[in-house]
């Protein structure tokens, strides 16, 4: 009898096993990977959305923001690159989720379609962000002492604020106006101006990360709503009396009463008519306890989808704006240093090409790094020095700002700014001042050292005078060539080429700079004229 009962118990266990697994999947596993999956993004911040400002109001806000910012200049740990890597990971996870959802022939929202269709562009922007933000770059930028962006670069917080108050839509007009208005209170460094496109790119990627999380949560909630809807539809068709049990199971799992879940669940059950009014009534009752209605959540879901789609499309458009904008013009239009240097007495600075002007600005930036004076103060000092020398001296070179930045007046400028001149900079200046002496001196010293090694060996061998003389001649010839090669190699590594200042004639040569080149020639026949003209070209 005991053996028979054990067999019966074993058969009953095998029959109940599939039901137990199904119950475990429905009541524990599915809820864990369904509604409880929201805990993964529980600590995520909302998208960068604030009150949308007009251009004028955005400029007023820039002034307020500048007064609110408290800066620190001590270097800190790199945070932006770490956050960029986290954002990339989240965006790739959401992309994989969207791809799987489409493979299962499930619907996705228009905002999700925007994200999928333009994901190649997002990947390009992430790659560009890594490329243009080398490790340690942001450490040299002034950081904020307090606020939501505490310990982050000031320009990053400016980028976040612009995106927040324009819903991700950035153009050259509102960006230039915002930066110029900010600088009426606090001037930005040249390095900060060049960092603005990088910071805008990082802030847009951050915003897309937050928007993509909303899309992921929406897909998770809709997937959960579809699972419960499928089960209720199946039970109502096969065993209507058991529908109450399914509703009880759903109630015990405590599904999220959020707009996406309610809207999708309501849509699926309404398609089947009035036979599924019982679960809809239960949803309505739960919502009434929370002071909500189904229609309110459906309308909220529609508004959320529309706003998310607009935000994502604005971010994508801003990415394209960042890729097509001439940031050289932006920096020069917003740089306080550039505006000061353009006051050059003879107007020569403004007629120079971009790379020469940029070279001048970088010298001011470098002096300011080793001085307590600001870049603006140093630029003003250079202009004043040029103005004073224009009155005292007749030499036009002394009235040009370049003389005090890349010419012989650089040392006087650095001293006037109380800048600490590094050993490397002093060595470079000496090399530029006495190049021939340094070059020949280096060859002579190396030749002497190498030649002495040969002579010392010969002396130890006690060779005759004639052989010693021959050894010295051979050693001198051989070591001189080796020394010249070594000095030339070191020169290419240590000495940077000195770029000559250039004028900008890209739009044509002005009348005062035009000249005529006369080439004497003999014209022996008419057909030779074309050949001569072709040779000139």
Concise overview:
The chain has about 525 residues and is mostly helical.
Description of the structure:
This protein is mainly alpha-helical and 537 residues long. It folds into five domains: 2-33; 55-221, no CATH class; 222-324, no CATH class; 341-421, no CATH class; 432-494, no CATH class. It has 22 helices and two strands. The protein has helices at residues 2-33, 55-68, 80-103, 110-117, 119-132, 154-164, 172-182, 190-238, 243-253, 259-270, 277-289, 294-324, 327-334, 336-341, 348-351, 354-369, 375-392, 410-416, 423-433, 435-460, 465-494, 527-536, and strands at residues 71-72, 143-144. The chain has a two-stranded antiparallel sheet with strand order 1-2. The protein is elongated, with a radius of gyration of 37 Å. It starts with a helix and ends with a helix. Residues 1-10 and 23-37 have low confidence and may be disordered.
SSE blueprint and pairings:
Layout (H helix, E strand, L loop, with lengths): L1 H32 L21 H14 L2 E2 L7 H24 L6 H8 L1 H14 L10 E2 L9 H11 L7 H11 L7 H49 L4 H11 L5 H12 L6 H13 L4 H31 L2 H8 L1 H6 L6 H4 L2 H16 L5 H18 L17 H7 L6 H11 L1 H26 L4 H30 L32 H10 L1
Antiparallel strand pairs: 1-2
Helix pairs in contact: 2-7, 3-5, 3-8, 4-12, 5-8, 6-8, 8-9, 8-10, 8-12, 8-13, 10-12, 20-21
């Amino acid at each position: 009898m005991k053996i028979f009962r054990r067999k019966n118990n074993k058969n009953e266990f095998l029959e109940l096993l599939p039901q137990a697994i199904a119950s475990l999947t429905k009541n524990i596993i599915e809820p864990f990977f369904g509604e409880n999956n929201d805990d993964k993004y529980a600590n995520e911040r909302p998208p960068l959305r604030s009150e949308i400002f007009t251009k004028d109001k955005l400029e007023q806000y820039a002034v307020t923001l500048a007064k609110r910012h408290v800066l620190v200049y001590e270097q800190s740990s790199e945070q932006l690159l770490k956050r960029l890597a986290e954002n990339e990971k989240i965006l790739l996870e959401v992309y994989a989720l969207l791809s799987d959802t489409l493979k299962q022939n499930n619907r996705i929202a228009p905002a999700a379609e925007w994200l999928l269709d333009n994901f190649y562009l997002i990947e390009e922007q992430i790659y560009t962000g890594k490329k243009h933000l080398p490790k340690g770059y942001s450490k040299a930028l002034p950081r904020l002492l307090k606020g939501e962006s505490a310990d982050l670069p000031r320009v990053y917080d400016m980028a976040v604020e612009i995106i927040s108050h324009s819903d991700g839509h950035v153009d050259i007009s509102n960006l230039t106006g915002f930066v110029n208005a900010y600088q009426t209170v606090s001037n930005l460094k040249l390095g900060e101006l060049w960092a603005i496109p990088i910071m805008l790119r990082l802030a847009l990627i951050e915003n897309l990360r937050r928007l993509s999380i909303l899309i992921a949560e929406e897909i998770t909630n809709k997937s959960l709503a579809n699972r419960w809807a499928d089960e209720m539809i199946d039970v109502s068709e096969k065993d209507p009396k058991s529908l109450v049990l399914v509703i009880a199971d759903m109630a015990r799992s405590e599904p999220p009463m959020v707009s996406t879940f309610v809207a999708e669940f309501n849509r699926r059950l309404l398609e089947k008519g009035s036979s599924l009014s019982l679960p809809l009534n239960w949803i309505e009752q739960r919502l009434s306890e929370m002071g909500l209605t189904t229609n309110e959540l459906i309308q909220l879901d529609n508004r959320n989808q529309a706003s998310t789609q607009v935000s994502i499309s604005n971010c994508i458009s801003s990415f394209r704006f960042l890729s097509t904008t001439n940031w050289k013009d932006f920096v020069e239009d917003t740089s306080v240093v550039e505006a000061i240097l353009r006051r050059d007495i003879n107007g020569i600075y403004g007629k120079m090409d971009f790379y020469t002007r940029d070279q001048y600005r970088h010298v001011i930036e470098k002096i300011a790094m080793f001085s307590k004076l600001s870049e603006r103060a140093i630029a003003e000092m250079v202009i004043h020095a040029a103005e004073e020398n224009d009155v005292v001296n007749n030499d036009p070179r002394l009235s040009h700002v370049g003389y005090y930045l890349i010419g012989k007046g650089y040392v006087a400028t650095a001293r006037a700014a109380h800048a600490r001149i590094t050993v490397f900079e002093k060595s470079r200046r000496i090399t530029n001042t006495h190049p021939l002496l340094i070059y020949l001196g280096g060859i002579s010293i190396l030749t002497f050292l190498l030649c002495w090694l040969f002579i010392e060996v010969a002396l130890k061998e006690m060779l005759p005078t004639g052989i010693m003389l021959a050894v010295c001649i051979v050693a001198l010839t051989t070591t001189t060539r080796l020394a010249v090669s070594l000095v030339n190699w070191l020169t290419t590594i240590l000495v940077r080429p000195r770029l000559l200042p250039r004028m900008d004639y890209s739009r044509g040569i002005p009348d005062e700079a035009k000249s005529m080149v006369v080439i004497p020639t003999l014209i022996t026949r008419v057909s030779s004229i074309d050949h001569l003209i072709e040779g000139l070209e």
